[in-house]
Amino acid sequence: MRARSNLCARPGLLFAFALAFATGACGNDLPKATVITHMRVLGAQVSVLGDPTRSTPKPGETATLTFRVVYPSVETSDAELSSFLFSCTAPATYTGVPTCQELVDALQRPVRPGQDKVELEGGNCKGFEGKSAVTGTLGETCVTNTPKIKVKIEPDSKVGAKLVLGVICRNGWPFVDPSAANIFGCDPKPGKQSSEVETIGVYATIRVEHSAEFQNKNPDLGLGTFKISPLTGAELDGAAVWPPAKAADLPATDDDCIDAAKANLLTTADGEVDTIRIAYPTKARELHEGVLETLEVSSYATAGELSQRFTLFDPEAPVVHGQLQTDLTWKLSKAEKAAVGVNGKLVRFFFTVLDHRGGFDSTMRAVCVRR
Amino acid sequence: MGESKRLLAWVLVCLSAPTTVAWAQTGVITVPASPEEQPTEPAKPPVLVAPKLKEFAPATFPPAALEQGVTGQVTVELELLVGVDGTVSDAQVKTAAGNGFDEAALEAGRKLIFEPATRDGQPVPARVVFPYVFEIKEAPKPVEVEAPPKPGRLEVEVLGADDKQPIAGAEVLLTAADPQQKLIRRAQTDVAGHAAFDELLAGQYQVHLSKRQWLAQDAQESIAAGEATHVVYRLQLVPDAEAFHAVARIAPPPREVTRRTIGREELTRIPGTRGDALRAVEILPGVGRPPMGAGVIIVRGSAPADTQVLLNGIPVQLLYHFGGLTSFINSSLLESVDFYPGNFSVRYGRRRGGIIEATVADPPRDKLHGIVDLNLIDGSLLAQGPITSNWEFAAAARRSWVDLFITQVLSGTDVQSVAAPVYYDYQAITTYRPGERDKLRLMVYGSSDAMRLLFSQPSDTDAAVSGNLKLATQFQRAHVSWMRKVSDRVDHDLEVAAGHFDAAFGLGSAFDFSLKGTDMYLRSEWRARMSDHLRVIAGLDSLLLPGEVSYAGPPITQQEGSPDNGSSGTAISNRSHIASSDKFTVLQPAVYLETDLDLQPVRIELGTRVDYYSEVDQVSIDPRASAHYSIDDKTRLKGGVGMFSQPPQYQESSAVFGNPHLGPTHTTHTGFGVERDLGENIHLGVEGFYKFLYDRIIGTQLGVPPKFMNGGRGRIYGLEVSAKVNPTGRFFGYLSYTLSRSEREDHHEGYKLFDFDQPHILTLSGVYRLGRGWELGATFRLVSGNPSTPVIGAVYNADTALYSPVYGPLNSIRSTLFSRLDVRLAKSWRLEPGKITVYLDVQNIYNRTNAEGIVYDFDYRMSMPVSGIPIFPNLGLRGEL
C-alpha cells in the first residue's frame, strides 16, 4: 500500500536528522539566534485593556498586542520604527505564515482553478509619520515608535483567536503587498539608504477566552531571579541577584560603560566560561486544565555565545527550593574580548518567557565588560 | 607378455579389426527343406548357392584374454542361421575357444550381414558354419636396418582451442617411444605457432606441449620414413580460478520493454553499497540519487512512492534499515534483482513509476554452506543446504552494532541514548520438491528498527525539537510459494503471504505517529503456451490490509512541490497541530491478462490490468503494449506504450486526514530503444522515454477542505544510455548515463521542476579480480544537484519566537553538482573447506562535500549548503563455507 511505504520512509529521515543533530553534524557557521546582531523582535505581549496582566481577552474586550523589539546597539531605540499591522481571524490550521480565516473561507466557495483568486488587500503607511491611524476592515494600523495594535473582540465573537499580521520597519515606510513574493516590506524613508532600512515581517495571535472561569495571565519575569558568575566574583549560590537593567541606567554608548554604576562588572581571564542562573518560582506557574503550564524561556545577548537559546520548564521540570532553575553558560570570543576598549564594553542580555497559551514577558540584564 | 605388449596388441586389434580378425567359410551348408518341397519324383537337383558375407562386424577383444597374454590366432566356430534378408537370425558356438572369445564372437556374429543363400535363384534361409578368427599380433620389434632409413620430419602447429589463434612460445617436448632411441628434443613455437623436428627416425613419438596459463597436452605421433608429418594441436586455457562464474540463466521471454537484471555474482560486490543487493540498483540507468538518509529510490523522475519493491512478487513494507543503511534481506539469499524503469508488464500494478523485484535463490542442494559477515555496522550469519534430496533450507539473521558505540558518540552532547539504535532482520526459507512438476517454498522473514533518544535541551532552531525522539518499525511475514508445471504447456505460480507490521515514531509532543495492521497478499498466475507462437498469461493480484493509525503533528500537506518538506522548511512549532486516529480496511484486488505473440523476428506483448481500490471505491483499467524486433542475433529494437494507475496515499484518501472522494492517479509511459550485443559479454543499450502524469493528487489552496484533489499534471522525458560487461572473466562493470527532465504542474500554474529532477546522472562501476584473492572495485557517480526553492524572506512568529520562511519560485535554484567515488577492496584466502575475505568499503573516498540542500539561519537571512555524507569507511570480515 502506497500510504504505508511512503510514511515508512520517514523514519529514515527522522533517524538521519536525530543522528545528525546528536553528533553535532548540524553545526554550522551561520549566525546564532542567541546573539543580537541586528534589529530583532523577541516576542509580543498581549494585555487586556483594563487588566494588563491578562493575555486572553474575552468577547467584548479590547486587547493590546505589543511587539518587543531589541537592537544590538544601546543607541538605537523604538523611536526609529514605523509599523503596519492589521488583524483578522486566525485560521484553524496553517503551515508557515498563516492566512486570515476570511481568505480560507472565501476559497471554500467553488473555485475554478487558475481563474479564481482570493487575495489579501495590501497597504502602506506613507503619510502617517508621527501618528497612528486605523483604516480598513481588517483594522490596518500604521504606528510609529513601539509596534502595537489594539484589537477589539466583538461581543458576539465566536473566533478562537485573532491573528495580527504586519511589518516593522526601521528607517523605512512599511507596506504589505500580497501580490509580491515577499508580502511584507519597507521603503526607505526620505534621506535613508536602502542599506539603513531594517525590516521584520511579524505575526502573532491573540487568543480569545470564551470561558467565564478561565483566564490566562502573562508570566512575570520580575518574579524570577538572575545571577551571573564568576563575573560577579562569587559562586552562584552566594552571588548577589543580577538586577534588571533599566534603560535609564544604561550608558549612552556600548563602548563607554565604565562609569555606569549599576552595570559595572569585571571580565575574566581568556577562555573562562561564565555561568548564568535563571530561577523562577514554581508557584508562579498557572494551572491549565489541571496541569501546570509549560514555560519556555529564551535567552539572548548582544555579544558572546550563550550555551542554549531555549529552556523548557514543563510540568515535570525539577524544582529546587521552590524554584524552576536552569544554568546557562556565556562566553566571549577572543576577538570580542580583544575589542573591548579602555572604557569597557556594554553587553545586554534579554530573557523572554512564553507560556504557549498567549502569555509573554521579557526582561533585560546588562554587564560592562572591562579589560 | 609384458604390459606394453598386451596393450599394443589390444590397440592394434581394436584399430584394425578388419585386418586382424579374419573369417572363412568352410562350405558346410544346411538348407532346411519344407514338406511341400519334397520331390515326388526324381528331378533335376536344385541349384544351391551358399550365403556370402556382405558386411563384416568386428568383435570386441575380450579383456580377460588380454590380461592373460593370449597371442596368435584364436578361432571360434559359429553356426549361423542366415535369413532370406541376409541377417543372422540365430547364432550358436560350435567350437569354443574360451577366455571370452566365444561371447565376443557370438556378439559379432549376430551382426554379420550376408547375401542370402539361394535355391534355384530364390533366397532361402540357410544354416552356415562360420569360423570367427581372432588374431593378436605381437608388438613390433625393432627393425633391423640394413641401410640408413630416410629421416622423417614432424611439423607442429599450436593454436588456441577457442579463438584458433596461433600460440607463440609454447614448448614442444618430443620423446621417442622406443627407449633405446633415447631421444628427447625440445622446440618452441614461433609467432605463427609453428615448430618442427627434422631427422627423425620412423617410429612412434610422444609429444608434450606446455605453456604458462594453458593446459598441457600429450599426444603420440607416428613418423614415417622420408615423410613430413604435420600435426595441429589446440590448447585450452587454464580455467581462471579468480574469474567470475556467472550461472547462465535462460530468461523467459521479455514481458517488458526494459528489464535490467543484476545477477548473483554482482549483487554483493558493487562498491558503495556495503554489499547490499537492493542498493546496487542505484547504479542502473534511470535511477536517481536519493537524498542522504532518505532511504528511497527515484526512478525516471518519478516520486519515490511511485516505485514498488517486491520480493518474489509480494510488496515489501520496509525496504531499508534506518534511512538507507542497508536493506532488510541478506543479499546472499538473492538470486537476482530485476529492475523495470517503466513500461512494465501488467503483472505489476498499483504503481506508476518503476518496479524492483528481488528473487530469492533456491538453497543449494550439494552440501551445507554458511556465511558469516562481520563489519563495523552490523553482523550477519547465514546457513543453507540440503535436508533431503528434495528438501533444502536457508536461514539468515543480522543485527547492527550501532548501539555499542552510539553512547560514546553522544557523550558530551545534550542527547542521551535511552534506547540505542538497533536493527535486525531474519529470513528462513525452505524449498521442497514433491515431484518433477512441483516446487513449494516457505519463507518467513521480518525486520525491526528501534531507537529512542532523549534531547535534554531544545534545539536552538525549534523548541519543539526536544524530549524523546523515538522510532520503531517492524514487520514479520510468512510467504508460501507453489510453482507447478501443470503440463508441458501450462505453468501455474501461487504466492500467498500474510504478516503484521507496526511503525511508530515521534518527537516530543510535536509529532507522534503510529501505524499497525495486518497485510495479506494473494498472487496467482497461469502461463499457457497456446502454440509455438502464442503464450497467454492470466493472473490475480490481491491485497487486503486492515489497520489503524494515529497521528498528532502538523497538518498533512501535499508531498511533491512542497518546500516545507525540505531542509529549509517551516519549523514544526510554526505549523498548527492536528491530532486524530483512524481504523481502515483496504482491499485492492486486481486481475490481468497478457498475450505474448512470437512472430520471429517480431515479438508483441499485449496486456490489460484491472484494479479496484476499496478506499476510494474506484476502478482503473490499464492497457499496455510492448514489442521487440530482432534486426539480427545481436541487435534488437524495442518499444512500448501503456497506462499505469496508482491509488492515492492513505493520508490523501482517508476520510479523517484527506479526501475519500479522490480517484487514482495515472501515468502513460512511452518508450523506444535499441539493444546491441558486442560479443558474448558486452551489452549496449539506448532508450528514450516519455511519461505523462495526470490526475495527480495535489493539495487544495491553503489546505481548505477537501484538502486534496486530482488536479495535477506532470511530464517526464529523457534518454538512457547503458553498457554492461557481464561477470564472466575477471571483470564486470556498468556504465549508465541518463539525461532527463521531470516537471510538475499544480493548479494550472505552469510546469515547474520536480523536487528530484536530476538532468544528468552518470554512473561508472566496475569490479576487477586482481589475482591471488584480491578484488578491487569502484563506483563513480556524477549527478546534477537537486532543485530547491529559495527563501526570499521570513516572517517572525511572536507566538513561538521563530521565523517562518517566505518562498520564492518553486524549485528555481539547484544544488551544486554531486560527485562521489566509492571504492571496495577485498582480499580472500581459500582455507579449505571455505574462504575468508577481508574487505574495506569506502564511500566518498575523496571526501567530497556534496550539497544535500540548503540550511538557513534562524531568520533566513543567511544560508549555506547542507553537507552530505563525508568519507565513510566500513571494514568487514566475511567467512564462507
Structure description:
The complex is a heterodimer of chains A (371) and B (881). Chain A has 371 residues and is mainly beta. Helix content of chain A is 9%, strand content 36%. In chain A, the strands form 6 sheets. Chain A has a 5-stranded antiparallel β-sheet with strand order 5-6-3-8-11, with no helix packed on it. In chain A, strand 14 and strand 15 (291-292) form a beta hairpin. The longest helix of chain A is centred in the first third of the chain and has 13 residues, at 10-22. The N and C termini of chain A lie far apart (67 Å). Chain B is mainly beta and 881 residues long. Chain B contains 7 helices and 52 strands. Chain B has a 22-stranded antiparallel barrel. In chain B, a hairpin with a 2-residue loop joins strand 42 and strand 43 (774-783). Chain B is elongated. The two termini of chain B are 52 Å apart. Mean pLDDT of chain B is 86; it is low at 1-43 and 139-145. Chains A and B meet through helix 1, helix 2, strand 1, helix 3 and strand 11 of A and strand 28, strand 29, strand 30, strand 31 and strand 32 of B.
Radius of gyration of chain A: 23 Å
Low-confidence stretches of chain A: 1-26
**Strand tally of chain A, please?**
22
Radius of gyration of chain B (CA) equals: 39 Å
Q: Distance between termini of chain B?
A: 52 Å
Assembly state: heterodimer
If interface size is counted as residues with C-beta under 8 Å from the partner's C-beta, which chains form the largest one? A-B, 77 and 105 residues
H/I helix tally of chain A: 4
State the share of residues found in helices of chain A, binned by percent: under 10%
Q: Helix and strand string of chain A, N-terminal first?
A: HHEEEHEEEEEEEEEEEEEEEEEHEE
Count the E strands of chain B.
Answer: 52
Mean pLDDT of chain B: 86
User: Pairing-aware structural class of the strands and helices of chain B?
Assistant: mainly beta
Share of β-strand residues of chain B: over 45%
**Major sheet characteristics of chain B:** 22 strands, antiparallel, barrel
End-to-end distance of chain A, in Å? 67 Å
| Helix residue percentage of chain B | under 10%
Strand content of chain A: 35-45%
As laid out across the biggest beta sheet of chain A, the strand order is 5-6-3-8-11
Poorly predicted runs of 5 or more residues of chain B: 1-43, 139-145
Sheet with the most strands of chain A?
5 strands, antiparallel
